[in-house]
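A reminder before we start the practical. When you read a complex entry, don't treat the lines as separate problems. The point of joint prediction is that each chain is placed relative to the others, so the output describes one connected object in space. Small molecules and nucleic acid strands, if listed, are placed in the same frame. In the example below there are two entries. Take a minute to note the order of the lines before looking further.
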Amino acid sequence: MQFRITADSISAPERAQSLQHAQAGACATFEGWVRNHNEGQAVASLEYEAYAELAEAEGNRILTEAREKFDLLAVEAVHRVGHLQIGDMAVWVGVAAAHRGPAFDACRLIIDELKARVPIWKKEHYVAGASAWINCATKGNFAGADSPQSV
Amino acid sequence: MKTITVKYFAILREQRGEAEEKLTTEADNAQSLYEELQTQHGFTLPVDRLRAAVNGEFQPWPAPLNEGDEVVFIPPVAGG
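Here is the predicted structure of the whole assembly.
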């Protein structure tokens, strides 16, 4: 059981081999891909950055929580960092269990928690030329270039 | 005064122009340190949208800082 940050491209078949288990009757995997649009903007590429030390610690805590909550036989996950192109795999989650219920449920829980808790950041580069760190925009009342205080 | 290492990631790294720095501060905790650095460098994210990590683990903002600590301010995450 391990969550890793990697700068290398992710091979799903290679990763799935780590889930092999004689008692497993179900394997659920999730692949997160770089898509060419987000919130109405055409995306050219994505840059991922991680605080690897804490990301791996927090990711492994998530895998441990999934094993405690569901009846699993094997669980692995990996998230890529660096500059990714459209279609590249950014994240892979794999779970093996005796039955499909816990496999599906654990896979869903793990990707949801990875997205919510692990210190990984994503910068979108738009076809139009601009770029932005996702979830890091500041709004009106916050200190920032657009705030009334700084005008 | 204590010596602290600060590592910057993502939007904070770009706004600081450095990935890491060693500094001396009178800040007692991570929140005071962030506010001090925010004033200096014009970080756009308010402290309530960040989390703090000290020596590789998440810590509550009021946790005290000690000589030699490594502090990371965690902008809103966006993995997946």
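Discuss with your neighbour: Residues 140-151 of chain A have pLDDT under 50 and may be disordered. What might explain this?
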